[in-house]
Amino acid sequence: MQKKVNPLVKMALEFGPVLAFFVGYLVVRDDVFVIGGRAYDGFIVVTAAFIPLMLVCTGILWRLSGHLSRMQLMTAILVVVFGGLSVWLNDERFFKVKPTIIYLFFAGVLGLGLLRGQSWLQYVMEGMMPLQPQGWMILTRRLMLFFVGLALANEVIWRTMSTDVWVNFKTFGLPVAMFLFFMAQSRLMDSHGIKEEKE
């Protein structure tokens, strides 16, 4: 049974590890650590610390709420897989490609639903945004394209720019882009929203 969690606690558990990664990276980005006779730069060390922190916070959130969304589970799995590969192979590229995989996966899931004439986004977010069926289809199509755009942006940034730029993009750029996307859907909400009847 899903339980209500204080919104501030939920936000801290979801975004705390990302902010901790950002702060940790700023502190040790220029350092090199020799562990077991092998040299690791600051990015890899922070990634190694981020993985258990992310899992602990996800576990606490599950304990408090009794529920984890598919997005949270998928994110945790990919953090372990790609973060683990980066640490094991001492190669930061695996961790940097993780957002690309996540956003392409979500775009693919939404696209598959659209091909079946369904908005699978509606099943996840219906309680938060009451929309007419046509509105859900439009929003799903837009969000699918948005996820593809985020995946492409991540690829361009980590392949052509510095690690500093990518860390800033991942920490601040992606959440801000998501916030702006949903803010930009206000006209869709007005035209396709389900308004409660008032006596």
Helix and strand topology:
Elements (H helix, E strand, L loop, with lengths): L6 H22 L3 E4 L2 E4 H24 L4 H20 L3 H23 L4 H6 L7 H28 L2 H21 L2 H7 L7
Helix pairs in contact: 1-2, 2-3, 3-4, 4-6, 6-7, 6-8
Family: Belongs to the YciB family.
Keywords: Cell inner membrane, Cell membrane, Membrane, Transmembrane, Transmembrane helix
Main location: membrane
Please provide a written account of the structure.
With 199 residues, this protein is mainly alpha-helical. The protein is built from 8 helices and 2 strands, in the order αββααααααα. It has a two-stranded antiparallel ribbon with strand order 1-2. A hairpin with a 2-residue loop joins strand 1 and strand 2 (38-41). Helix 4 (93-115) runs antiparallel to helix 6 and helix 6 (133-160) runs antiparallel to helix 7 (163-183). It is globular and about 60 Å long. It starts with 6 loop residues before the first helix and ends in a 7-residue tail after the last helix.
Question: What tags apply to this protein structure?
Answer:
transmembrane helix, 2 domains, globular, transmembrane, YciB, 8 helices, mainly alpha, single chain, Inner membrane-spanning protein YciB, cell inner membrane, 199 residues, 2 strands
Mean pLDDT: 89
* Beginning-to-end CA distance, first to last residue: 34 Å
Number of domains: 2
Query: How would you characterize the largest beta sheet?
Result: 2 strands, antiparallel
Question: What is the helix tally?
Answer: 8
DSSP strand tally: 2
Q: How does the helix and strand content classify structurally?
A: mainly alpha
Q: Uncertain segments of ≥5 residues (pLDDT<50)?
A: none
Please write the string of helix (H) and strand (E) elements: HEEHHHHHHH
* Proportion in helices: over 70%
Name the shape in a single word: globular
Q: How do the strands line up in the largest sheet? A: 1-2
The gyration radius over C-alpha positions equals: 19 Å
Fraction in beta strands: under 5%
Subcellular location: Cell inner membrane
Membrane topology: Multi-pass membrane protein
Protein name: Inner membrane-spanning protein YciB
Pfam family, one: IspA
